[in-house]
Design goal:
Helices cover about 40% and strands about 10% of the residues. By secondary structure, it is α/β, with parallel strands linked by helices.
């Protein structure tokens, strides 16, 4: 009996929580801003938007509402982004990521990022840590109509890589990201962060505590 083998030709990474630990810094940035207005911003509230976009949950709009308009949404977003970036600048690339990228490149495996975050955030950070030139495609919220859990980001990444889903593998840290990858037909390795560890990852192909164990 002949065994069928599907070669791995592409890897598509999520960005936040997979390449860099950004979730805690971004949460802390918003928590501190809410605190300045005498308000509480919880981890559970932040998790409502993890792996997806502001169309599902926007902390800036929540702050405007709860502060009775004492700050505008665009101003809140700018302040939070600046604070988050300062914290993210101190974060190293997550364990195993650089090694996996180098190993993939040496084998001719194409690489991409598919993220529900804004283009400026994703590309700016990828460039800062020296990974942008290693990628054949970077797809962000600015490139699609619908972000995760919709499959559009992954379908776009596949198109830009010129590969089919059966030959690619996704790496995700959230339920929304996992569902997006699976809807696009990809196998998905889940590597939860401290914040996302309690999410439902039953649809994952594999669950790891770190990419270094892949």
């Amino acid at each position: 009996m002949k065994t069928t083998y599907t070669p791995l030709l592409g890897i598509i990474f999520d960005f936040d929580g997979i390449i860099l630990e950004t979730e805690i810094p971004r949460y802390e940035a918003w928590r501190s801003l809410f605190q300045e207005y005498g308000l509480t911003f919880t981890v559970d509230q932040w998790l409502m938007g993890v792996g997806t976009g502001p169309s599902v949950f926007n902390p800036a709009e929540l702050l405007v509402e709860q502060s009775n308009g004492m700050i505008q949404a665009c101003q809140a977003q700018e302040i939070a982004d600046q604070r988050a970036q300062a914290l993210v600048n101190e974060q190293p690339v997550l364990p195993g990521v650089l090694e996996l990228i180098q190993a993939a490149k040496s084998r001719g495996i194409k690489l991409a990022v598919a993220s529900s975050s804004e283009q400026e955030w994703v590309i700016g950070n990828l460039d800062r840590i020296g990974l942008l030139t290693s990628l054949g495609a970077v797809c962000t919220a600015d490139d699609v109509t619908y972000v995760k859990p919709d499959p559009e980001l992954y379908l776009l990444a596949l198109k830009q890589l010129g590969l089919s889903a059966e030959n690619c593998l996704a790496f995700e840290d959230s339920t929304n990201g996992l569902l997006s990858a699976r809807k696009a037909g990809l196998q998905c390795v889940v590597v939860p962060t401290e914040m996302t560890a309690g999410m439902d990852f039953s649809a994952a192909t594999l669950r790891l505590t770190s990419i270094e164990y892949f």
